[in-house]
Amino acid sequence: xxxxxxxxxxxxxxxxxxxxxxxxxxxxxxxxxxxxxxxxxxxxxxxxxxxxxxxxxxxxxxxxxxxxxxxxxxxxxxxxxxxxxxxxxxxxxxxxxxxxxxxxxxxxxxxxxxxxxxxxxxxxxxxxxxxxxxxxxxxxxxxxxxxxxxxxxxxxxxxxxxxxxxxxxxxxxxxxxxxxxxxxxxxxxxxxxxxxxxxxxxxxxxx
Length: 207
Known about the structure:
Blueprint: H1 13-19, E1 24-29, E2 32-45, E3 73-78, E4 82-88, E5 96-107, H2 109-117, H3 124-128, H4 134-141, E6 159-162, E7 178-183, E8 200-205
Helix pairs in contact: 2-4
């Protein structure tokens, strides 16, 4: 199985955020394999980025996961209710990561719907908005702070990223032509000049 290796996450964080688009996030949960295709990411680089939790190498109990080896999970809570999944990048000791902001459900969709919405009926709006935010993505995959610091590269874990659906035994469909778009990150207006860094990336279908 071609799980993305530690080497994949070792390079430049902004480049890795781009390269993660179109990859497949896999979650093994209660005997089921949930798969989604990554469609939106954001880069955070602690040494120069005031939007990063570990800006200026600020190391706390919360940010310690960012200083771990590349390929580890950094899961944190926002607004007291939503978990957000990041993948640590760059060499150990360099606090950087890519936030997984959005995805498209590929396999295990019924379970994702149940985890995300409970017993609420699946309307068209709920289906459209199921995975288009970091907190939504974590809830639909059952990812919590229990996965903080998990190694996503060891091949034996319950959470990892791979190149192809064939890597998890699923057929590979023909995908539409897409382009990578870039723009400022969301929700970081406090970060002075860093709020304008074009470090959010997403896929759009080409006309």
